[in-house]
Amino acid sequence: MFDRMLLLVGLLVLAHPTHAAWRETDESIKSRGDVTVQILVARAVAKIGDEIPNPPNDIAVFFPGADGKVRRARAGLSEHGKNPSTMGLMAEKFGMAVAFGLPSDQPDGISVSWRIGAEHIGDASAVIDWLVKQYPVARITMIGMSNGGRSVTRVAEAIVKRGAPKLHGVVVMSAAPEAIAEGIMSPIREAKVPVLVMHHKRDSCLLYRDIEPVAKRYTFVAIDDTKQPMVSLFMRSCSPGSAHVFGGKEALVYSIIAEWVQTGKVSAVD
Hints:
Elements: H1 2-15, E1 21-30, E2 36-45, E3 58-63, E4 77-78, H2 86-94, E5 95-103, H3 112-115, H4 118-134, E6 139-145, H5 147-162, E7 169-173, H6 182-190, E8 195-200, H7 208-215, E9 219-223, H8 250-263
Parallel strand pairs: 3-5, 3-6, 6-7, 7-8, 8-9
Antiparallel strand pairs: 1-2, 1-4, 2-5
Protein backbone atom coordinates (compact mmCIF):
# COMPACT_ATOMS: atom_id res chain seq x y z
CA MET A 1 0.00 0.00 0.00
CA PHE A 2 2.81 2.41 0.93
CA ASP A 3 4.63 1.73 -2.36
CA ARG A 4 1.43 2.36 -4.29
CA MET A 5 0.98 5.70 -2.48
CA LEU A 6 4.54 6.71 -3.40
CA LEU A 7 3.89 5.88 -7.05
CA LEU A 8 0.71 7.96 -7.00
CA VAL A 9 2.54 10.90 -5.44
CA GLY A 10 5.20 10.63 -8.15
CA LEU A 11 2.59 10.80 -10.90
CA LEU A 12 0.93 13.78 -9.26
CA VAL A 13 4.24 15.62 -9.15
CA LEU A 14 4.82 14.88 -12.83
CA ALA A 15 1.28 16.01 -13.63
CA HIS A 16 1.95 19.40 -12.01
CA PRO A 17 5.33 20.48 -13.42
CA THR A 18 7.28 23.43 -12.10
CA HIS A 19 7.56 25.06 -15.52
CA ALA A 20 4.85 27.66 -15.96
CA ALA A 21 5.19 28.38 -19.66
CA TRP A 22 7.01 27.55 -22.84
CA ARG A 23 8.40 29.37 -25.85
CA GLU A 24 7.87 28.20 -29.43
CA THR A 25 9.95 28.62 -32.58
CA ASP A 26 9.71 27.38 -36.15
CA GLU A 27 12.63 25.68 -37.87
CA SER A 28 13.12 24.44 -41.43
CA ILE A 29 15.43 21.45 -41.75
CA LYS A 30 17.07 20.61 -45.07
CA SER A 31 16.26 17.09 -46.23
CA ARG A 32 16.04 15.68 -49.77
CA GLY A 33 17.66 17.95 -52.36
CA ASP A 34 15.79 21.25 -52.16
CA VAL A 35 13.14 19.84 -49.82
CA THR A 36 12.90 21.23 -46.29
CA VAL A 37 10.87 19.96 -43.35
CA GLN A 38 8.93 22.27 -41.03
CA ILE A 39 9.28 21.54 -37.33
CA LEU A 40 7.75 23.28 -34.34
CA VAL A 41 10.05 23.54 -31.32
CA ALA A 42 8.79 24.20 -27.77
CA ARG A 43 11.15 24.91 -24.87
CA ALA A 44 9.97 25.07 -21.27
CA VAL A 45 10.91 28.30 -19.50
CA ALA A 46 10.35 29.71 -16.04
CA LYS A 47 7.68 32.39 -16.23
CA ILE A 48 9.46 34.62 -13.71
CA GLY A 49 12.29 36.32 -15.54
CA ASP A 50 11.60 34.37 -18.74
CA GLU A 51 15.02 32.73 -18.61
CA ILE A 52 16.45 30.87 -21.55
CA PRO A 53 16.63 27.23 -20.44
CA ASN A 54 19.78 25.14 -20.31
CA PRO A 55 20.40 22.60 -23.09
CA PRO A 56 17.80 19.83 -22.66
CA ASN A 57 18.59 16.46 -21.16
CA ASP A 58 15.60 14.97 -23.00
CA ILE A 59 13.87 15.81 -26.26
CA ALA A 60 10.43 14.52 -27.26
CA VAL A 61 9.98 14.30 -31.04
CA PHE A 62 6.26 14.17 -31.75
CA PHE A 63 4.71 12.83 -34.96
CA PRO A 64 1.07 13.97 -35.19
CA GLY A 65 -1.72 11.92 -36.69
CA ALA A 66 -4.25 12.74 -39.43
CA ASP A 67 -2.52 14.48 -42.36
CA GLY A 68 0.58 15.39 -40.39
CA LYS A 69 0.05 19.14 -40.42
CA VAL A 70 1.66 21.15 -37.63
CA ARG A 71 0.67 24.71 -36.74
CA ARG A 72 3.12 27.61 -36.74
CA ALA A 73 4.82 28.84 -33.59
CA ARG A 74 3.03 31.28 -31.33
CA ALA A 75 4.80 34.53 -30.46
CA GLY A 76 5.96 35.20 -26.91
CA LEU A 77 5.38 32.91 -23.97
CA SER A 78 2.66 30.28 -24.30
CA GLU A 79 0.54 28.93 -21.46
CA HIS A 80 -2.25 26.37 -21.24
CA GLY A 81 -5.73 27.63 -21.97
CA LYS A 82 -8.99 25.88 -21.19
CA ASN A 83 -7.66 22.73 -22.82
CA PRO A 84 -4.07 21.57 -22.28
CA SER A 85 -1.63 21.98 -25.15
CA THR A 86 0.15 18.84 -26.34
CA MET A 87 3.28 20.85 -27.14
CA GLY A 88 3.11 22.53 -23.75
CA LEU A 89 2.72 19.25 -21.87
CA MET A 90 5.66 17.70 -23.68
CA ALA A 91 7.85 20.77 -23.19
CA GLU A 92 7.03 20.76 -19.47
CA LYS A 93 7.71 17.06 -19.04
CA PHE A 94 10.83 16.82 -21.22
CA GLY A 95 12.24 20.33 -21.31
CA MET A 96 12.07 20.40 -25.10
CA ALA A 97 9.49 19.11 -27.58
CA VAL A 98 9.70 19.00 -31.36
CA ALA A 99 6.64 18.46 -33.56
CA PHE A 100 7.52 16.97 -36.93
CA GLY A 101 5.63 18.81 -39.65
CA LEU A 102 5.27 18.61 -43.42
CA PRO A 103 7.98 18.51 -46.06
CA SER A 104 7.91 21.40 -48.51
CA ASP A 105 6.92 19.12 -51.41
CA GLN A 106 3.81 17.85 -49.54
CA PRO A 107 2.11 21.08 -48.41
CA ASP A 108 -1.39 19.59 -48.34
CA GLY A 109 -0.54 16.80 -45.93
CA ILE A 110 0.78 13.25 -45.98
CA SER A 111 -1.01 9.92 -46.31
CA VAL A 112 -0.44 6.67 -44.45
CA SER A 113 1.32 5.27 -47.53
CA TRP A 114 3.67 8.29 -47.51
CA ARG A 115 4.44 7.67 -43.82
CA ILE A 116 5.89 4.25 -44.58
CA GLY A 117 7.84 5.40 -47.65
CA ALA A 118 11.50 6.23 -48.14
CA GLU A 119 10.93 9.98 -48.50
CA HIS A 120 9.21 10.31 -45.13
CA ILE A 121 11.78 8.14 -43.40
CA GLY A 122 14.56 10.24 -44.94
CA ASP A 123 12.90 13.49 -43.87
CA ALA A 124 12.45 12.29 -40.30
CA SER A 125 15.99 10.95 -40.13
CA ALA A 126 17.28 14.35 -41.26
CA VAL A 127 15.41 16.02 -38.39
CA ILE A 128 16.75 13.50 -35.85
CA ASP A 129 20.29 13.98 -37.16
CA TRP A 130 19.91 17.76 -36.86
CA LEU A 131 18.74 17.44 -33.26
CA VAL A 132 21.66 15.15 -32.41
CA LYS A 133 24.07 17.70 -33.88
CA GLN A 134 22.45 20.61 -32.02
CA TYR A 135 22.03 18.78 -28.70
CA PRO A 136 24.58 15.93 -28.66
CA VAL A 137 24.02 14.89 -25.03
CA ALA A 138 20.21 14.94 -25.09
CA ARG A 139 18.23 11.70 -25.04
CA ILE A 140 15.71 11.48 -27.87
CA THR A 141 12.32 9.83 -27.45
CA MET A 142 10.02 9.60 -30.48
CA ILE A 143 6.27 9.79 -29.84
CA GLY A 144 3.66 8.98 -32.48
CA MET A 145 -0.05 9.70 -32.14
CA SER A 146 -2.56 7.76 -34.29
CA ASN A 147 -1.17 7.74 -37.86
CA GLY A 148 1.99 9.16 -36.33
CA GLY A 149 2.49 5.75 -34.75
CA ARG A 150 3.14 4.40 -38.24
CA SER A 151 5.79 7.08 -38.64
CA VAL A 152 7.72 6.54 -35.41
CA THR A 153 8.15 2.80 -35.76
CA ARG A 154 9.20 3.01 -39.42
CA VAL A 155 11.65 5.80 -38.64
CA ALA A 156 12.98 3.98 -35.58
CA GLU A 157 13.45 0.83 -37.66
CA ALA A 158 15.49 2.79 -40.22
CA ILE A 159 17.57 4.53 -37.55
CA VAL A 160 18.54 1.34 -35.73
CA LYS A 161 19.39 -0.38 -39.01
CA ARG A 162 21.94 2.31 -39.86
CA GLY A 163 23.34 2.17 -36.35
CA ALA A 164 22.97 5.78 -35.17
CA PRO A 165 21.88 7.73 -33.31
CA LYS A 166 20.82 5.74 -30.28
CA LEU A 167 17.16 6.33 -29.50
CA HIS A 168 16.17 6.52 -25.85
CA GLY A 169 12.66 5.24 -26.52
CA VAL A 170 9.66 4.95 -28.84
CA VAL A 171 6.08 5.71 -27.76
CA VAL A 172 3.12 4.57 -29.87
CA MET A 173 -0.22 6.18 -28.96
CA SER A 174 -3.71 5.36 -30.28
CA ALA A 175 -2.30 3.57 -33.31
CA ALA A 176 -3.41 0.77 -35.60
CA PRO A 177 -1.84 -2.66 -34.96
CA GLU A 178 0.10 -2.34 -38.22
CA ALA A 179 2.26 0.29 -36.51
CA ILE A 180 3.79 -2.37 -34.28
CA ALA A 181 3.81 -5.28 -36.72
CA GLU A 182 6.51 -7.86 -36.04
CA GLY A 183 8.50 -7.15 -39.21
CA ILE A 184 8.93 -3.51 -38.22
CA MET A 185 9.50 -4.04 -34.51
CA SER A 186 12.03 -6.88 -34.65
CA PRO A 187 15.05 -4.64 -35.46
CA ILE A 188 13.93 -2.16 -32.78
CA ARG A 189 13.80 -4.91 -30.16
CA GLU A 190 17.17 -6.28 -31.26
CA ALA A 191 18.66 -2.81 -30.79
CA LYS A 192 17.17 -2.80 -27.26
CA VAL A 193 15.22 0.41 -27.82
CA PRO A 194 12.43 0.53 -25.20
CA VAL A 195 8.87 0.73 -26.56
CA LEU A 196 5.77 2.04 -24.78
CA VAL A 197 2.30 1.54 -26.27
CA MET A 198 -0.69 3.52 -24.99
CA HIS A 199 -4.33 3.21 -26.01
CA HIS A 200 -7.70 4.34 -24.69
CA LYS A 201 -10.20 1.57 -24.03
CA ARG A 202 -13.00 3.77 -25.41
CA ASP A 203 -11.24 4.73 -28.64
CA SER A 204 -13.81 4.64 -31.45
CA CYS A 205 -11.33 5.72 -34.12
CA LEU A 206 -8.77 2.91 -33.90
CA LEU A 207 -10.13 0.22 -31.62
CA TYR A 208 -8.42 -0.91 -28.44
CA ARG A 209 -9.40 -4.52 -29.07
CA ASP A 210 -7.45 -4.56 -32.33
CA ILE A 211 -4.10 -3.50 -30.89
CA GLU A 212 -4.26 -5.06 -27.42
CA PRO A 213 -3.00 -8.57 -28.34
CA VAL A 214 0.09 -7.18 -30.12
CA ALA A 215 0.69 -4.31 -27.68
CA LYS A 216 1.12 -6.70 -24.75
CA ARG A 217 4.52 -7.67 -26.15
CA TYR A 218 5.75 -4.26 -24.99
CA THR A 219 5.18 -1.96 -22.04
CA PHE A 220 1.45 -1.38 -22.51
CA VAL A 221 -0.74 1.16 -20.76
CA ALA A 222 -4.51 1.17 -21.20
CA ILE A 223 -6.38 4.35 -20.28
CA ASP A 224 -10.08 4.47 -19.41
CA ASP A 225 -12.42 7.33 -18.57
CA THR A 226 -16.11 6.93 -17.80
CA LYS A 227 -16.69 10.51 -18.98
CA GLN A 228 -16.03 9.33 -22.53
CA PRO A 229 -18.78 7.48 -24.44
CA MET A 230 -18.60 3.74 -24.90
CA VAL A 231 -16.94 2.39 -28.02
CA SER A 232 -19.03 2.62 -31.16
CA LEU A 233 -18.56 0.09 -33.96
CA PHE A 234 -20.72 2.16 -36.30
CA MET A 235 -19.40 5.71 -35.97
CA ARG A 236 -15.72 6.63 -35.83
CA SER A 237 -14.68 9.39 -33.45
CA CYS A 238 -11.17 10.75 -34.04
CA SER A 239 -11.77 14.40 -33.19
CA PRO A 240 -10.08 16.65 -30.60
CA GLY A 241 -11.35 15.86 -27.12
CA SER A 242 -12.28 12.29 -28.01
CA ALA A 243 -10.93 9.15 -26.37
CA HIS A 244 -8.73 8.67 -29.44
CA VAL A 245 -6.58 11.61 -28.33
CA PHE A 246 -7.06 10.86 -24.60
CA GLY A 247 -9.41 13.81 -24.17
CA GLY A 248 -9.61 14.81 -20.51
CA LYS A 249 -6.64 12.62 -19.60
CA GLU A 250 -3.88 14.48 -21.44
CA ALA A 251 -1.92 15.55 -18.35
CA LEU A 252 -2.02 12.01 -16.93
CA VAL A 253 -0.95 10.46 -20.23
CA TYR A 254 2.09 12.68 -20.69
CA SER A 255 3.00 12.25 -17.03
CA ILE A 256 3.03 8.49 -17.57
CA ILE A 257 5.25 8.92 -20.63
CA ALA A 258 7.63 11.17 -18.68
CA GLU A 259 7.80 8.68 -15.82
CA TRP A 260 8.56 5.86 -18.27
CA VAL A 261 11.29 7.90 -19.99
CA GLN A 262 12.94 8.72 -16.67
CA THR A 263 12.58 5.36 -14.91
CA GLY A 264 11.76 2.75 -17.54
CA LYS A 265 8.62 1.89 -15.57
CA VAL A 266 5.00 2.99 -15.33
CA SER A 267 2.86 3.22 -12.23
CA ALA A 268 -0.40 1.34 -11.94
CA VAL A 269 -3.25 3.15 -13.68
CA ASP A 270 -6.75 2.55 -12.34
